[in-house]
Automatic annotation (TrEMBL):
PANTHER family in UniProt: ABC TRANSPORTER ATP-BINDING PROTEIN ALBC-RELATED
Organism this protein belongs to: Devosia crocina
Domain ABC transporter: 6-237
Protein name: ABC-2 type transport system ATP-binding protein
One Gene Ontology molecular-function label: ATP binding
Alphabetical list of CDD domains matching this protein: ABC_DR_subfamily_A
Keywords, comma-separated and alphabetical: ATP-binding, Nucleotide-binding, Transport
PROSITE patterns with a match to the protein in the record: ABC_TRANSPORTER_2
Length: 299
């Protein structure tokens, strides 16, 4: 994080964000700030409310509470906001009847910050050619085209909702590498949801876990690494000692007992077995099963 990002206004601010569908409350009053220049992972089970949260930020759905994105109310000022926001969602589709070059021409007419040259540049190195009809592209090529389009937009905020759904591992890795190497700068902010959280963990600066419409963890990755520890312990005596330290999670896997601790110093754990930082997917499993992972924000 640079000084500028430390002192600048958050890119997204939400206060008491609630959403109801047909009388049923789906989001229960989320409060968060997303600063500039960060890469956020938004993680939660199916139906937890990730897409609804993103849709509220993008002005695609109405909500109760307050959201400001780049200082604007996204629902009231969607058109203005979209000059500086780009997004890919698992349901967004490109116009299939167009050729690739026609899509670029269309976008350069409707989007003030779209660069045809950049879009073409991003496609070099792929099998996609400007003359191709979009409907003939494979799923992987379609995702590459989508990424090229989004990366050709000079946006301050990029929102990716399951951007690599249905892609094979090679395409997924290439997708994230391209995004990091060719797009991310300190002025840009990226928010990603995915169920393959281990694949994006390396690039995240911050994480949000959402469970049943509540934000149960919102933390910088550095803090996650300091705060949480995983211990693998094989002997009954050391396991007993570990339990006495109040793990937030315990599981027996392949004959080994794995504990996750929140805020227990590593030098207290080290005599009891092998200590490491839990992966995000391990932490996710551990925290999702607790009654509350973060009592001040969870309900
Ligand atoms: N248009 C809608 N009408 C009614 N209910 C909806 C609508 N959209 C979403 N929901 C409900 O809101 C809840 C949250 O859905 P949402 O799509 O935000 O979850 P998600 O965390 O993105 O899930 P997934 O990982 O499966 O994409 C779910 O219970 C879903 O059924």
């Amino acid at each position: 994080m640079t000084d500028t990002t430390l002192h600048s206004e958050p890119v997204v601010t939400a206060r008491g964000l609630k959403k109801r569908f047909g009388g049923k409350e789906i989001l229960h009053g989320l409060d968060f700030d997303i600063p500039a220049g960060r890469i956020y992972g938004l993680v939660g089970h199916n139906g937890a409310g990730k897409t609804t949260t993103l849709n509220a930020m993008l002005g695609l759905t109405s909500y109760e509470g307050t959201i400001r994105v780049l200082g604007e109310d996204p629902f009231a000022r969607r058109a203005k906001l979209m000059e500086n926001v780009a997004f890919i969602s698992d349901v967004a589709s490109l116009p299939r009847f167009l050729r690739v070059r026609e899509l670029f021409a269309l976008l350069s007419n409707i989007h003030p910050n779209f660069s045809v040259d950049k879009a073409r540049d991003f496609l070099s190195g792929t099998d996609i050619r400007p003359e191709m009809k979009i409907k003939t592209l494979s799923k992987g090529m379609m995702a590459q085209l989508h990424l090229a389009v989004v990366m050709a937009i000079d946006a301050k905020l990029l929102v990716l909702d399951e951007p690599t759904l249905g892609l094979d591992i090679t395409y997924r890795k290439r997708f994230y590498r391209r995004l990091l190497e060719d797009y991310m700068t300190e002025e840009r902010t990226l928010i990603i949801t995915t169920h393959q959280v281990d694949e994006i963990e390396f690039m995240l600066s911050d994480i949000m876990f959402i469970r049943d419409g509540d934000l149960i963890l919102h933390m910088q990755m550095e803090t996650v690494n300091e705060k949480f520890a995983q211990l693998v312990s094989n002997e009954p005596e050391t396991q007993e000692a570990a339990r006495a330290l109040g793990p937030v999670y315990e599981e027996t896997r392949f004959g080994q007992t794995v504990f996750v601790f929140d805020g227990v110093a590593r030098d207290r754990l080290e005599p009891l077995g092998k200590v490491s930082t839990p992966t995000l997917s391990d932490l996710f499993v551990a925290l999702m099963q607790r009654p509350t992972a973060n009592p001040e924000t969870a309900r």
